[in-house]
Amino acid sequence: MSNSSARRQGVRRKLTAMDDKFAGKNVLLVDDSIVRGTTSREIVSMARESGARKVYFASCAPPITHAHIYGIDLASPSELIAHDQGHDRALESIAQHIGADKVIFQDLQDLKDACSEATVSERTMPAIRDFEVGVFCGKYVTPVDPGYFEHLERVRGETRKMKVLEKAREAVATGCANPEDYQIATNGVEVTGDGKVISASPIQRSNQSPALNGNGVESNSSEDTLPRGRMDISLHNFADYP
């Protein structure tokens, strides 16, 4: 099962749309943010399944367009739904992607002003005027070395390798695997230069070094490389055999 599939199922487990609250109505759904759009799309879909006429989706955060580099593993930039898009185009394409009639994002300056106002108190220092908002605009409070984002993608990909492989093997074992799961379980996974985890290419036998059989003779036959005197014990108890 892919990560996006798991997220969609997680939304269905946590949330239930009440038909009498949605049927025949125009509704506004509010969430803290839209990151990949997978969760938002599922919520919009549930609202429509319950009979909503129109569905508007509001994000309390501005569009997340860049990676977080201070310890929060949000997502790869390529996975961010608002990454590398102009504002007007982003609104239209994001609404289409999540199935909403319209999306509304918080304005970054308004967010900063609201946070600054919240810090004002008679017993505190003057209000904080600036914040770390790199995920919204790509301008971080500390310098970023050239190639650092590419490095992050490769590191992120390496940490995902085992998770992807384990999920594929679990899907095969439970009988709910798709073709990609079978390919990953068979061939393993590899990380591309941009950090994506993909199924490894099957090794062509013609490129493999020839095997040596028990007599020291080269052989390309898989039968020659198998151990002699094998016994299938999958359905037996080890204690049944001396």
Describe the fold and architecture.
With 242 residues, the protein is of the alpha/beta class. The protein has helices spanning 3-14, 19-22, 38-49, 87-98, 108-118, 134-137, 148-174, 179-187, and strands at 26-31, 54-59, 102-105, 189-191, 197-199, 211-212, 218-219. Strands 1-2-3 form a three-stranded parallel beta sheet. The protein has a two-stranded antiparallel sheet with strand order 4-5. A two-stranded antiparallel ribbon has the order 6-7. Helix 1 packs across helix 3 (38-49) and helix 7 packs across helix 8 (179-187). The two termini are 42 Å apart.
Low-confidence stretches: 204-238
How many beta-strand elements?
7
Gyration radius, rounded: 26 Å
Mean pLDDT: 79
Number of helices: 8
Given the helix and strand composition, which structural class is it? alpha/beta
For the sheet with most strands, the description reads: 3 strands, parallel
Broad shape? flat
Relative strand content: 5-15%
- Oligomer state equals single chain
Q: State the strand order across the main sheet.
A: 1-2-3
What portion of residues is helical?
A: 25-40%
Distance between the termini: 42 Å
| H and E string | HHEHEHEHHHHEEEE
